[in-house]
Design goal:
This is Putative oxidoreductase. There is one protein chain. This protein has about 110 residues and is α/β, with parallel strands linked by helices. It has a single domain, classed as NAD(P)-binding Rossmann-like Domain (Rossmann fold), CATH 3.40.50. The protein has helices spanning about 15-25, 40-50, 55-60, 75-85, 100-110, and strands spanning about 5-10, 30-35, 50-55, 65-70, 90. The protein is globular, with a radius of gyration of 13 Å. The mean pLDDT is about 95.
Length: about 110
């Protein structure tokens, strides 16, 4: 089975839910965890045998295939765009942005 190596950005409540889901799924591996609070990223990463990294490293690392964005809503659009530009598969918690216009703009820029 092909395994997707994930970087999780955001280690708050919903990030913890996604980390547990990734850990249970045979086709995925939680490889990296990033958060603006490094100590939270470290704690969640340790729980699942992942590495705590910076957001930039999570997005740009060749050691991952996909980025799961579970950070605060105001950061979703920017992170989604950055991860897509880095060539990663992107999974983003909803909403992409509180502004429908901004959400549409981001989607138009990242979809082929």
């Amino acid at each position: 089975m092909i395994c997707k190596r994930f970087a999780l950005v955001g280690s708050g409540f919903i990030g913890q839910v996604h980390a547990a889901s990734l850990a249970r799924h045979e086709g995925s591996a939680l490889t990296m965890v990033a958060d603006t609070a490094p100590e939270r990223a470290q704690a969640l990463a340790a729980r699942y045998g992942a590495r705590a990294v910076t957001v930039s490293e999570a997005i740009h690392s060749d050691a991952i295939d996909a980025v799961l964005i579970a950070s605060s809503t105001p950061s979703h659009a920017e992170l989604l765009e950055a991860a897509a530009r880095a060539g990663k598969a992107v999974y983003c918690e909803k909403p992409i942005d509180l502004s429908l216009a901004r959400a549409r703009e981001v989607v138009e820029r990242v979809l082929p």
